[in-house]
């Protein structure tokens, strides 16, 4: 159990790979990849994602105040990575990848049609934290591909096949198998 | 690509399982499990975690303004689940699980000695979001077990063996294999 200091790093396991969808002022759909984020409230259901001011998405979010989060499956790791490499200022990322921008029913923002899970969000507030602005969005609805639903009507992770981001090695890694039921396996330790 | 609405849910893949360590007013070490969180800033390196006011950890955090985040390996899924089931008000969670509370060098908070990765955090600010309070902490240091370091001196995910939480099925699932290098595999799509 000897521990070694590796300094103040933005380390956590796992980081998600969130694809943030917004419209530009010219109506062009844009997407970016963000790993600094997570759910931040149950009621209202809300998600937080941190974005730097230099990003096109920052401008779009501040203007439109609505966004989507598309969650890619492992089949789209290359496209998701691309979304984090190039800027929407000078590139049409949908055209370059051949993926389909779909306008959300509920908010004025596009999502990635091919990705299995989509959150439709409306901005509740922003929080300034150092070089990032945290956007907190209420989740108005979640839409999932019918093909990833299990027999219980819930998304089945073995069909969604999401991946995670390792910030130390700068790699993406897949999901493993189910280990245990939550709020259940720990009961064995109750006296 | 037909999508089905499943309503406004706190869904994301993957959710982390963060074990928040604090001291009680009597100096007793306490831990709780939190899945609503993630990194929120690069400079300063900062992490956000949302906690309800009813929790013992909320009280401890408001008073001490310092905390740790321990990240469990798959070997401790049972203990991590237990930390989310019982309350520190009436239970000594370390005694019940036999795990070791270790006082952080840098902050006045305990971490779980047996867990491979630990973040030492000082509160920067709190944000009220519905029924949760989001605690944003600066990451002052990260400490990792020497046994999980790879030859490059970085934590090796195949040695850390973290797991994730599936909020739809309320299950924990493990990590899969490395898929691709980030900021690299997407370059293939650059024109």
Structural class of chain A: mainly beta
CATH superfamily of chain A: Electron Transport, Fmn-binding Protein, Chain A
| Oligomerization status of the protein chains | homodimer
The CATH architecture category of chain A equals Roll
Low-confidence stretches of chain A: none
Global morphology of chain A = globular
The overall strand count of chain A is 12
Helices of chain A, by number, come to: 4
User: Terminal Cα separation of chain A, in Å?
Assistant: 27 Å
Helix content of chain A: 10-25%
**Beta-strand percentage range of chain A:** 35-45%
**Sheet having the most strands of chain A:** 7 strands, antiparallel
CATH topological fold name of chain A:
Pnp Oxidase, Chain A
Give the chain pair forming the largest contact, with residue counts: A-B, 109 and 109 residues
Strand order of the largest sheet of chain A: 3-2-6-9-10-5-4
Task: Return the average pLDDT of chain A rounded to an integer.
Answer: 96
């Amino acid at each position: 159990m000897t521990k070694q200091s590796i300094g103040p790093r933005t380390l956590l396991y796992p980081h998600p790979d969130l694809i943030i969808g917004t419209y530009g002022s010219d109506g062009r759909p844009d997407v970016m990849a963000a790993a600094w984020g997570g759910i931040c409230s149950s009621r209202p259901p809300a998600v937080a994602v941190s974005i730097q001011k230099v990003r096109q998405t920052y401008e779009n979010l501040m203007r439109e105040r609505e966004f989507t989060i598309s969650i890619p499956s492992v089949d789209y790791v290359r496209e998701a990575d691309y979304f984090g490499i190039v800027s929407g200022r000078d590139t049409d990322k949908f055209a370059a990848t051949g993926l389909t921008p779909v306008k959300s029913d509920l908010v004025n923002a596009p999502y990635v049609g091919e990705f299995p899970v989509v959150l439709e969000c409306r901005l509740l507030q922003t929080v300034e934290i150092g070089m990032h602005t945290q956007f907190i969005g209420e989740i108005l609805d979640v839409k999932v591909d019918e093909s990833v639903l299990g027999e219980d009507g819930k998304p089945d992770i073995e069909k969604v096949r999401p991946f995670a981001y390792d910030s130390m090695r700068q790699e993406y890694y897949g999901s493993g198998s189910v280990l245990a039921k939550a709020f259940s396996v720990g009961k064995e330790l109750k006296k």
